[in-house]
Each structure stands twice: as C-alpha cells, then as structure tokens.
Amino acid sequence: MGCRERRRCARLSLNGLAACADAFAGLSNCLVRFADALIPCGCAICRTAIPADGPPLCGLCASRVASVPTPWCPRCGLTRVIPGPAVGQCSECHSWSPALRRAASACLYVGPAAELVRGFKYRAWTRLAEFMGDLMLAPARRLVNGSVPELVPVPLTKAKRRERGFNQAELLAQEMSRRSGWPVALHLSRERGGPPLARLGRWDRAKVARRAYSIRSGAAGLAGPRSAVLIVDDVITTGATGVACAEALDAVGLECLGIVSFARTSPLVGGG
C-alpha cells in the first residue's frame, strides 16, 4: 500500500471514530433522560418526594434559590456596591459594547440555582426548563418594557449540540415563549469552537467570544427593520457572550433590547 493510500485509510478511520463518538454521546444523553424518567419523582436538589405534577423542587430548596439583591445596576443588573466610572455603569459592565444595552437574571448562580444549571446542562435534566423559564419571565419583562420581542437563544456549535443532545438556551426560550407568546427566532449561529468558557477568565472569555457568533444564513431577512430581539442564555458570567451576540444582531439592523438569563454569577458571591 502506497503512502497516499495509507493516508486515505487513516482519514477514513478517523472519520469513522468521530461518527462513533457522536453516536455514543447521543445514546448516552438518551439513556440519562430515560433513567431520569424512571426514577420516582423527587426534588431535583435533595431528592425529597414531591408531587409529579408540581415544580421540580421541594419548597425548602425553592426558597433557597436566591434572587439578585437590589439595588441593581440599571445596565447589567448586578447588585451595586461601589459606584462605577460613570452614572448608570459599574465595574462589571463599563467595558461592554454599546450593542448590549442591558442584562437581567432570575437568580444568583449559587446553591440550588447552580445545581439546577449543572443538572440541566450536563445531566440532561431538560424537564427543569419549564421551572427555570418561568422564573426568567419577570426579569425579561423588565428588559423589554412592554415591547414584543423575538427571543434569540445563544447558539451552540454543531459538535456541542450533538454531544449534549439539545441547546439549553433554546429550551429556555421555548418555555418563555409558551408563557409570554413572544416568538423564538434562531437568528444566531456559532461556528467557532474553543475551550469551555466556564474555565476562562474575563479577558480570555471576551477573546474567545469575539467573532464566534454570526447571523444564520437568511435569518436577517426574516425580521422587519429594527425588529426588537432579546437574547436568552442559562448563565451570565462576564457578559462577553451577550456582547458578542448583541454585536452580531446589531450589525444586521436588529434592535437588541438586552440579554436575560436564569442565573448570574457575582464577584461578591462564590458559585456552586
């Protein structure tokens, strides 16, 4: 066998391994969801028995989901402790692009809320989307101020979506849409991968997120001129993802009202 033939066989083998890995990841997610369906209904945090037709948390754990304390920064929605460099700004959002006007979250990424996010994303507890999306409606309404926006979930790369089996931001947007009547619009795509943002600091996050998001082919034509959109994500950390998405939407003439998330990390509170 010549060198060219050996290279061709090696490429075919690698492609076959990649396809097997994708299939295994999808099967693994299906098995996790099947096992969760078989387990008797219990609180997603403490496993205390709860009604099958009720919220996924017991009353005690639900009471420990901590909302973001006031007073809020009017732009990024975090608790203001030290005045920022200018009126209406703080140390968390003063460097954000003007494309991202505002942000708001349902709760802090700490305690039960952090456990919910991890279970939702990494254990495929997709039934949590209903509970989480419901809590996100109040902060979302603060951002849209009476407007009827399109809900734009933060996208995953195709590889990450295959691996996980779903896009958590899209599921949250669908639940919010079901309650509010606001349409979901998949305007964004993410082509560039990179290291998980959860492992990166502020500046590295901004570097990875920059130019990672773009408008899906033909998506811009689906909206009217200056159509209002609201970005949806599960967690806001530094705002780098929101800024990158808002800039992509703004570049094609869409009016980005902000980003809403279920949870928000805070420099004043440790996550987990």
Q: Topology, pairings included?
A:
Blueprint: H1 3-38, H2 59-63, E1 103-108, H3 112-122, H4 128-144, E2 150-153, H5 158-164, H6 168-180, E3 188-190, H7 202-209, E4 213-215, E5 228-236, H8 240-251, E6 255-264
Parallel strand pairs: 1-6, 2-5, 5-6
Antiparallel strand pairs: 3-4
Description:
With 272 residues, this protein is of the alpha/beta class. It has a single domain, classed as Rossmann fold (3-Layer(aba) Sandwich). Helix content is 40%, strand content 13%. The protein contains eight helices and six strands. The strands form two sheets. It has a four-stranded parallel sheet. Strand 5, helix 8 and strand 6 form a beta-alpha-beta unit. The protein is globular and about 50 Å long. The termini are far apart. The N terminus is likely disordered.
Structural features:
alpha/beta; about 270 residues; Rossmann fold; 4-stranded parallel sheet; 8 helices
The portion of residues assigned to helices is: 40-55%
Strand % is: 5-15%
**Rounded average pLDDT:** 82
**Total number of distinct structural domains:** 1
Low-confidence stretches: 1-7
Helix and strand content put the structural class at alpha/beta
- The main sheet orders its strands as 1-6-5-2
- CATH domain class name: Alpha Beta
Along the chain, the helix and strand elements come as: HHEHHEHHEHEEHE
CATH architecture: 3-Layer(aba) Sandwich
Major β-sheet profile: 4 strands, parallel
Instruction: Please state the CA-atom Rg, rounded to the nearest Å.
Output: 20 Å
Count of DSSP H/I helices: 8
Overall strand count: 6
Shape: globular
Termini distance?
Answer: 55 Å
CATH topology: Rossmann fold
